[in-house]
Amino acid sequence: MYSSLPQTVRLDSKKIKKIREERGLTQLYVATVVGVTIDTISRWENKRYPSVKRENAEKLAQTLEVDVEEILEKLPQEDTDENGEALEQQEQDSSRTAQSFPNNQHKKRVAFFVTAIAAFFAMAGMMAGYLVFRPSSLSLDIDALRCLPAHSAPGALFPVLIKIDIDPKAKRTVLIKEDIPRILKILKAVPKYTSLEKGLLKWIYQGETSNLRFVYVANMPSSIKENKRLRFKGTVTIKTDQTVSVGIGGNNRIVSAPFHWADKNMDNRIDDEEILDAYELLSGTSGMNKLLKEVETLWAADMYQWDQKIRKYVPVKNN
Q1: Residues 237/177, Cβ–Cβ less than 8 Å
Q2: Domains present along the chain, CATH in parentheses
Q3: What does pLDDT average to over the chain?
Q4: How far apart (Å, rounded) are the C-alpha atoms in residues 155 and 222?
Q5: Which of 52-56, 112-116, 154-158, 294-298 comes out lowest in average pLDDT?
Q6: In Å, how far are 20, 71, 77, 292 from 74, measured between CA atoms?
Q7: What's the CA gap between 52 and 7, in Å, rounded?
Q8: Is the pLDDT score of 78 beyond 60?
Q9: Confidence bin at 114 (pLDDT 50/70/90)
Q10: Is 224 exposed, middle or buried (0-12, 13-18, 19+ CB in 10 A)?
Q11: Taking Cα atoms as reference points, which of 154, 295, 278, 173 lies closest to residue 215?
Q12: Which of 163, 144, 124 is nearest to 37 (CA)?
C-alpha cells in the first residue's frame, strides 16, 4: 500500500502517543493489534526504537486510523533566515573574519574536530554499555496461542488449549488471563486455575516457561440458540525487569452447531485426520480420557448424530 516508503522508517514518537491518547486506546490494545509487545509500543513512544520496519509502521498507522505519513518523523529542513539579506551579510562577515584571522580559524577547526572525536567515542561507549546491560525483555519472545474448536453442540462439552512458549528459557512467574463468555460453565482445568470469577479465568504459574499447556473443558449451554457466536480473549503477562504483556492469538470464537467439536468439516463423521488432531490437542493432559474416548467411539462408527434429548453424540451405522 505504501510501496514508496523505504524498508526502514523513523517514527514520530510524540505524534504516536498523542494520537493513541486522543483515540482513547491503551498500549495493550495497540500492541495486540499490531502484533508486538507493550514494551515495544512504550519504546516507540519514548523514541528508544526510532527506526522500525515499514510493515510495522503501516500496521501501527492502521491501528491508529491515520495515514502512515502522519506518524513518521519529518526530515529537518535546511536552516533559513527570515531575512535573506541578513543571512547573506552574516556569511560575508564570516568570510572576512576567516581571511583576517587565519590562525584563529585554524585553531577553532582543530578544537571542533577534537571535540567531535571525543563526543563520538563517548557515544560509542554509551551504546556499548546499553547493548551489554539492556533489559532482558528486549530479547524476550513470547508465543501464546489458543486452540479453540470452531463449533460445539448446545449442551455438549468442548476443550480449549492455551499453548505458551517463552524464549529464552528460564524460570519465571507468568500470569495467564482468559476472558470467556459468562454463559459457559467450566467443568475442569489442567492445571487447576488460580481463580475464576465473572467469566475471567486466571492462572499464576511459576517455573520453566517452555512448552506450557493450559487446558480447560467448557459446557456449551443447552438453551443457547443455534449459530450463536461466543468470543474469547486473553493475555499473558510476565514480570522481568519490566512488565511485558501480550495477547493470546489463535481462534477466538466458537459457534453453537449440532456437530462434534472434533468434526472440523461438519460432515457428521470423525475421519483419521480429525482424530489425530484431537489426540494432538489433548494427549498428555491428565483427566481428558473421557473426551478422547468419545472421539474414538465416533471415529470407529461410520457416522454420528447429536441427540438433543439425551445431550450426547450417538454413533450411527450405515446400512
Answers
A1: yes
A2: 8-70 (1.10.260.40), 141-316 (2.60.40.680)
A3: 80
A4: 4
A5: 112-116
A6: 19, 9, 9, 59
A7: 9
A8: no
A9: low
A10: middle
A11: 278
A12: 144
